[in-house]
């Protein structure tokens, strides 16, 4: 059974009265972190977005700190059902928040990026775009994949050449899968490890500015 997201643990960039009617950007942190991690990116993001940083629902085994979206330990650590369960909880949270916002975009790092892409696949009509930082597409087919390929929402994928955390077969799978299902853009950053660089943030800002321009057209 999946664990619901804690609505009280969400960090918002703006007060409730100023968020209504603005596009929503949801930040999804990586393994062993929490909602405060990616919230530090808010000054680098377009101010037109209302930004919400949510906390993953699971606690990793001791002594790992923070929270996780799905387990990476044990025999079932690559079971796509865990990623789907986390993405389903994200969709339920987004459904509750959607009424105040004309659109919802996702920005995730590592595990958070995998969940963002899985949510996009589960409900292609719900999310306007996704930013995949050092993440991957979960292998396996989902019922929404055909609709996603028809809709082709914008996705930015950034990763480093020295990222040794994401297995190569997942990078290869994502490289093949994403161009056939989404409008893919992004960059591979020389020397970057499993992290985010200033150049990558600048590229993300350009991508997000384009998404705002799309809504104005």
Q: In short, what is this structure?
A:
With 217 residues, this protein is α/β, with parallel strands linked by helices. Helix content is 35%, strand content 17%. β2 (24-28), α2 (35-39) and β3 (50-54) form a beta-alpha-beta unit.
Walkthrough of the structure:
The protein is α/β, with parallel strands linked by helices and 217 residues long. The protein is 35% helix and 17% strand. The chain has seven helices and seven strands; from the N terminus they run βαβαβαβαβαβαβα. It has helices at 16-19, 35-39, 80-97, 111-122, 145-151, 168-177, 198-216, and strands at 11-12, 24-28, 50-54, 104-109, 129-133, 154-160, 183-189. A seven-stranded mixed beta sheet has the order 1-3-2-4-5-6-7, with helices on both faces. Strand 4 (104-109), helix 4 and strand 5 form a beta-alpha-beta unit. Helix 3 (80-97) crosses helix 4. It is globular and about 40 Å long. 38% of the residues are buried. The model has no long low-confidence stretch (mean pLDDT 93).
Globally, the shape reads globular
Question: How do the strands of the widest beta sheet line up side by side?
Answer: 1-3-2-4-5-6-7
Radius of gyration, Cα only, in angstroms? 16 Å
What's the tally of helices?
7
Unreliable segments of 5+ consecutive residues: none
How many β-strands, per DSSP?
7
Query: What is the SS-derived class?
Result: alpha/beta
Assign a percent range to the helix content.
25-40%
Mean pLDDT across all amino acids: 93
Percent of residues in beta strands?
15-25%
The largest sheet is: 7 strands, mixed
Give the ordered list of helices and strands: EHEHEHEHEHEHEH
Distance between the termini: 42 Å
């Amino acid at each position: 059974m999946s664990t619901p997201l804690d609505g009280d643990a969400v960090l918002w960039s703006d007060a409730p009265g100023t968020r209504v009617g603005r596009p929503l950007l949801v930040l999804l942190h990586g393994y062993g972190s929490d909602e405060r991690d990616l919230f530090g990116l808010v000054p680098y993001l377009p101010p037109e977005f209302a930004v919400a940083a949510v906390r993953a629902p699971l606690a990793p085994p001791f002594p790992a700190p923070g929270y996780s979206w799905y387990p990476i330990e044990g025999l079932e650590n690559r079971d796509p059902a865990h990623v789907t369960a986390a993405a389903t909880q994200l969709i339920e949270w987004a459904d509750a928040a959607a009424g105040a916002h004309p659109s919802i975009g996702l920005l995730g790092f590592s595990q958070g990026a995998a969940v963002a892409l899985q949510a996009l696949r589960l409900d292609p009509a719900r999310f306007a775009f996704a930013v995949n930082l050092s993440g991957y597409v979960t292998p396996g087919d989902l019922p929404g994949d055909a609709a996603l390929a028809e809709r082709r929402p914008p996705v930015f994928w950034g990763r480093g050449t020295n990222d040794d955390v994401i297995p190569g077969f997942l990078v290869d799978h994502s490289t093949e899968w994403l161009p056939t299902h989404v409008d893919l853009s992004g960059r591979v950053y020389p020397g970057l490890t499993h992290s985010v660089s200033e150049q990558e943030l600048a590229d993300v800002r350009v991508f997000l500015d384009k998404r705002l321009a799309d809504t104005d057209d």
